């Protein structure tokens, strides 16, 4: 259906298409089928024929490309993205990324602000909650491991948590990995301490409430780990641009 294929001497000379003088010999290994020498000699007789067939197939493919120029036109007709379109997309993604970090960090920043306003002289209600939790931990360690825990002031614990949540959330808004690490430390220490569902029986109201809060803390911990993983995968932008070569004077 493509017509007569042109005979191009530069691509496939007529001498290569002629049968090899020894091609009439049947393709068989000598009487010893395991002989490597006979196998190589048999394949050498077929090599010129295979070369001629490959040359003929290349001519057919070239003829098809010449007869169907629409394939190359469709490749060239695909519009390339302009730099303005790519810049707009990057700006939109940057805005949504910043907005997501603000919404995520607002949970920690608002909580730190509330603890700071209620701190007072005694540490506020957060210090009282930490006192009960720390006393429970000390009792468990004393009974199981026979280890005496030192006395920890709950106000100091509340102050450290305010710094971790406030500073960590503020730095996380600007995409700093150090802020994410601060929030990870806060969640890793406070989630099993505050939400001790394991000290209650199943079916109790406190068990279900604390278990729900613990699962939410684990989800936030996983989101921070995902942020750090993606931050390490994305290559850093090159801030410094190459300086233009100075024109030679004289």
Automatic annotation (TrEMBL):
So where does this one cross the membrane? 95-116, 170-195, 207-228
Name of this protein: HR-like lesion-inducer
| Compositional bias of kind Polar residues | 21-33
Q: From what superkingdom does this record's organism come?
A: Eukaryota
Return the Basic and acidic residues bias intervals: 66-75
Q: Does the keyword Transcription regulation apply?
A: no
Specify the species. Linum tenue
Keyword Nucleotide-binding, does the record have it?
no
The entry's keywords: Membrane, Transmembrane, Transmembrane helix
Region annotation (Disordered) maps to 1-33, 64-86
**Source taxonomy:** Eukaryota, Viridiplantae, Streptophyta, Embryophyta, Tracheophyta
């Amino acid at each position: 259906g493509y017509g007569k294929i042109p005979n191009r001497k530069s691509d496939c000379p007529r001498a290569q298409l002629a049968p090899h003088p020894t091609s009439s010999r049947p393709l068989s290994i000598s009487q010893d089928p395991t002989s490597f020498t006979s196998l190589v000699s048999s394949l050498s007789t077929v090599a010129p024929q295979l070369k001629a067939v490959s040359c003929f197939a290349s001519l057919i493919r070239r003829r098809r490309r010449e007869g169907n120029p629409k394939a190359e036109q469709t490749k060239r007709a695909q519009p390339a993205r302009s730099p303005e379109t790519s810049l707009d997309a990057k700006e939109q993604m940057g805005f949504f990324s910043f907005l997501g970090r603000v919404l995520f960090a607002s949970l920690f920043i608002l909580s730190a602000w509330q603890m700071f306003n209620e701190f007072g002289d005694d540490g506020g209600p957060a210090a009282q909650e930490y006192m009960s939790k720390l006393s429970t931990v000390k009792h468990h360690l004393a009974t199981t491991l026979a280890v005496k825990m030192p006395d920890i002031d709950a106000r100091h614990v509340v102050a450290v948590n305010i710094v971790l949540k406030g500073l960590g959330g503020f730095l996380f808004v600007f995409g700093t990995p150090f802020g994410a690490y601060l929030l990870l430390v806060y969640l890793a220490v406070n989630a099993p301490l505050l939400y001790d569902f394991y000290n209650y029986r199943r079916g109790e109201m406190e068990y279900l409430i604390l278990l729900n809060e613990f699962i939410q803390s684990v989800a936030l911990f996983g989101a921070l780990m995902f942020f750090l993983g993606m931050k390490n995968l994305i290559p850093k932008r090159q801030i410094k641009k190459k300086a233009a070569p100075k024109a030679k004077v004289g």
